[in-house]
Amino acid sequence: MKKYRTTGLLVLLLIIFIAFPLVFSNPAVTTIAVFALIFTVAATGWNIFSGYSGYIALGHAAYFGVGAYTITLLSQAWKVPGGYAPFLLLPLAGIVAGVFAIPLGWIALRTRRHTFVVITVATFFILQLMAYNLKGLTNGSTGLSLPIPDWSGDFFNLPFYYVSFALLLIALAVSWWIRNSKYGLGLLAIRDDEDRALGLGVKTEPFKLIAFVISAFFVGMAGAMYVYFIGSIYPNTAFDALFDIVIALMVFLGGLGTLAGPILGAVILESAQQYFTLQFGASGYYLIIYGVLFLAIILLLPQGIIPTLRKRWLVWTASRGGGGRGSLATTPITPAKKREDTLAIEGKEA
Amino acid sequence: MTGILEAIITGLLTGAVYALMASGLTLIFGVMDIINVGQGALVILGAYFSYVLSEYLHIDLFLGLIITMPVMFGLGVLIEWAFIRPLKIDRTMLSILVTFAIALIIEGTLSQIFSTDVVQLHAWYVDASLQIGSFYLGYIYVFGFLLSLVLLGGLYFLLYRTKFGRSVRASMENRTAAELIGIRVERVSAITFGIGMALAAAGGMAFGATTAFNPGTHYDLISRLLAIIILGGMGSLRGALLASLGMLVVENVTAFVWSPIWASTVFFIALIIILLLRPQGLFGQVEGRKQ
User: Fold this and answer.
1) Is A194 in Cβ contact with B226 (below 8 Å)?
2) The pTM is what?
3) CB A132 to CB B261 under 8 A?
4) Which residues of A touch B97 (CB under 8 A)?
5) Which of A117, A130, A142, A91 is nearest to A239 (CA)?
6) Residue A200 carries which DSSP code?
7) Alpha carbons within 13 A on the beta-carbon side of A10
C-alpha cells in the first residue's frame, strides 16, 4: 500500500513539473521556473557532498563559475550556433568543473570543520580573481556573450526548462543512488564520526573527494545552464559570493542530507529571489529582505522543512493511537533521523 | 630597493590595522566556536559611522571612535543575544549562515542610505604625508598603526590581567568546564562579541581612511580576514597578529614587484601552500575528534 502511494506521489510530481510551463505559459513565470530548476540541480549536487558527508563547502560558486566559463569559451572556440547544440556542452562543462575540483578539493579536505569552510571560500576567491585578471581568456570585467538561440518569445524558455528538468532528474537519481548505496553509507558514517568511520575501514579520503567532485560536476553543469540562459557572462555573475551561501541556505531550508529537501529549498528561495529582484531591482531593499528571510528561516526552522514535517507527522500519527505504519515504535530509525538526535544532544551541551 | 622597503613598511603598518579586525574575529571564534562572516560588513559599518561623524558632524576621526566603539559594542551584544544565542542545533554551521544574513542586511541598508558609490574618509592626516629619506608615508598609516598598538595592548591587558579576561580564556579553553566552575559563559560570549565589534569599528575607521570603500567591500575584506585567522591558527590571537603583518607584507611586496591585480591572489595562494604543510595554521591546535 505504502509503495503504491509513494509511486503515485512521484508520478504526480513528475506530471506537475512537466505540465507547469504549459499551464503557466506566461514568460515571466517560466523564466522564474527555469532559474528555480537550475538551482535545484545545483542544490542537489551540493547536497551530495555537504549533506551526506557533513562537510559544509562554501566555495561551490567556484565550480559554478568554471562550468559557466567552460560553456562560454567552448562555444566560442568551436563556433557553436545558438539553439540546441550548446546543451550538448553541458556535460563537458560539468567534467571540467569536476577536474578543477580534484586538486582544490584535495587541498581543502586535508582540513576539517571551520578550516575546511574557510579554505573552500578561499579557493572561490582565487578563481574569481583569476576570472577578473586573466583578461586574454575571460575578457575581464567586460564579460563575454554566448550564442543566442533564435527561438521565439513564448517558446524560448521551454527548451531551457526541460533540459534543466532532465539535469535535475539525473542529479536526483545519482543522489538517490548514493543515499542507498554502501558508498553513501560510508559518507554518512563520515558525517557522524569521521575517526570512527576510518577505524571501521571506510576509506574516508577518497570517499570525501569523490563526493566533492560529483557535487562540483552538477554545480558546474548548473553554472553552464545558467549563463547560457542569461546569454552573457561576467566574473561577478559567474563567480558570485552570494551563490556560495545561497546554495547552502537552500539545502538547510529544505533539509540537509535529504533527497527532496534541496529541491524544495531551491524552488522556494530562488522563486522568492527572482520575485524580489523584479519588485525591487538591484536596490538595497532586495538585500535587506533576503537577509531577513535568511534569519527567519534559520531561527525558526533550523532543521529544515522536510525533517521538521517528518517529525511533526510522526508525532501526529503516534498521538492518534499509534500502532499504524507511521507510529514511532515501528518506524525504522534512518541515519538521517539518528543524526537529528545526535545533533539535538550536541546542541544542548554546546 | 627602497621601493621594496617602502612596500614592507606599508605592509607592516596596514597589517597592524588588519590585526585589529582579525583579532576580534579570532577572539569570537575562540570563545563561541563560531565564524562571524559578518565581521567584514561590521568593519564597513564602522567605517560608515566614522564617515557620518566626520562629514556631517565634523568630529575628528580618532575622537569619533569614542562614540562609534561603544555603539558598535552595544550592537554586538544585541546581535549575539538576538541571533547567535538562540541557535541550539548545529550552531557552528548555522552561525555562519546567520552572520552572513546580518552582513547582507547591513550591506543592503548601507547601500540604501549611502548608495554604492565609493567613498573614503578624510582628515588632514589622511592627505598629508611624512617624508622619511626618499619616500613619503601618509600620516594616517602611522596613526592607524599607533591606534592598533594601543587597542591591541588594551586587549592584551584585558585578557591576561583582569578577572574577566581569565573567564574569557577559560571559556576559550573549555566552554562546558568553564560553565561548571561558575563562569557565565553566555554573558562572556555576548561581551566578547561586543569587543569584537568595537575592534571592528576602530579597524573600520583606519581601513576607511587608507582605502576607498563601498557597502560591497565587505566580501573582499572578510575573505582576507578569514585567510588571516586561518593562517594564524583559529582562536590564536598571537597567530592573527603575526599572520596579518606577514600577509600584508607579502601582498604589498607582490603588488610592487609584480602587479597590484595579482596581489590578493598571491595572498590566497600563500595561504594554501602554508596549509598544505601545516593544516592547523601557524599557532592553531590540531583539531581532534569531537567528544
Assistant:
1) no
2) 0.82
3) yes
4) 245, 248-249, 252, 294, 298
5) A130
6) T
7) 11
Count Cβ atoms below 10 Å from residue B160 Cβ, excluding itself. Answer: 12
CA dihedral B219, B221, B225, B228 (to 10 degrees): 110
Q: Is the ipTM of this complex over 0.85?
A: no
**Tens digit of pLDDT per residue, chain A (350 long)?**
667 888 888 888 888 888 888 888 787 888 888 999 999 999 999 999 998 988 888 889 999 999 999 998 888 888 878 778 888 888 999 999 999 999 989 988 888 777 788 888 888 888 888 888 887 777 777 778 788 887 877 788 888 889 999 999 999 999 999 999 989 889 898 888 888 888 888 888 899 999 999 999 999 999 999 999 888 888 888 888 888 888 988 888 888 888 888 999 899 888 888 888 777 766 677 788 878 888 888 888 877 888 888 888 888 888 876 544 444 443 444 444 444 444 444 433 33
State the Cα–Cα distance between residues B247 and B83, nearest whole angstrom: 32
SS in 3 state form for B196-221?
HHHHHHHHHHHHHHHCCECHHHHHHH
- A-facing residues of B in 223-242 (CB < 8 A) are 223, 226-227, 229-230, 234
Classify residue A65 by its DSSP letter: H
